[in-house]
Amino acid sequence: MMKKVGEKESEMPTKRYLRWPIALASLPLFGMVAAFGIAPDTSLKDVPVQQVILNLDLPETSSSAIADTTFWRQERIQRGDTVAALLSRFEVNNLDAANFLHEARKIKAMHQLVPGRIVHAQTTARGELRMLRYFPGGSEQFLMEKTDGAFKLIEKPIELEKHVQMKSGVIDSSLFASTDSAGVPDNVTTQIVDIFSSDIDFHRDLRKGDRFTVVYESLHNDGELARAGRILAVEFVNQGTSYKAVYFQADDGNSGYYAPDGKNLRKAFLRSPLEFSRVSSGFSSARFHPVLQTWRAHKGVDYAAPTGTIVKATANGIVAFAGWQSGYGNIVILQHQGQYTTAYGHLSAFSKGLRKGQRVSQSDVIGYVGATGMATGPHLHYEFRVSGVQRDPLRVAMPVAIPILAQNMTIFHENTRPLTARLDMLRNTNLGSLD
Length: 435
What we know:
Strand content: 35-45%
Distance between the termini: 60 Å
CATH topology of the largest domain: Glucose Permease (Domain IIA)
Structural class: alpha+beta
CATH superfamily of the largest domain: Glucose Permease (Domain IIA)
CATH class of the largest domain: Mainly Beta
Number of domains: 3
CATH architecture of the largest domain: Distorted Sandwich
Shape: extended
Largest sheet: 10 strands, antiparallel
Helix content: 10-25%
């Protein structure tokens, strides 16, 4: 601040000022707008330059106020990260870090950090942790908030935003390898298998050069992907034959996947009780039994899969038997409508609560792959029986399900036409992703 002539030091104001010398240099300033406000050939050499000094008040701030100011920060989880490492990167002080780790020691989400996910933390300049938010996926978020000096867990559902994804790819080796290359999530791939399981045997029919295009929902939280949702439309070209499916829900609440003409793709029976594996032994009238060391008929299909792989009911039915049965080991037998029954042998365990007389729906989990009974390794022995006689489930003609009712056809076409248009747009392309 400039002192006036004759003014005493004690008479000077107590406020602090910032002295900013501002030079109004006309040449650079007006040079930038010459095309708009100055005539051509105007001389700027003699334009005066004046120095102006302004006194500006600085805000009164205290060191404690600055220290208590909060900031939101975020860190991306790296492979091998721990909660302690994240708190260190957030520069949380030792006391809060220790208290937080103590309260979070029994929380599952804190022991299963997902690489690539974002963790948000609200901290102060002095390193105090006020809040930590983490969304591991699903529909819940992890929120730890400091209240009255202690950290408390708050778990609450979140509102997920729906986005539509479109992806396409070509089978080069395996289905999952190809969908991974196209950026298709695994649960979307298993939906593809489930939708077309009545028409395509993904254990044996897959060929190099087969193509797929899929339109599905993806659910996001604050711009971060939470999980993939339901398939809305999908086309799979297997050995030159195109199979299409669109999702439709009627006014009565019934929903499912249908061909564009309204045909129900869900047959009365799935071709396979497993989402994905391989056939290790087919239906045969003469097979050398690996345990009995003799030739005998094999009246079912064996699917090799790791112990614990889920086993699904291939059709709606009632549990006729669930227990131990000699060479079958742990077995579930389902009674279906009419003359059909199915059997699932060598299970390691049954689905929790499964009991005789219980109703099950198609694709319900009824047990888990194992090696009980006469089995040399983990696999599922599956039988399809008609009037008590085993038939080859890979060859027998399956009953069909009810198509779209006539009164629903108009609304069906109105709802599904935009979905089939998306599939048509992706045909003959190999796009990784379109939003």
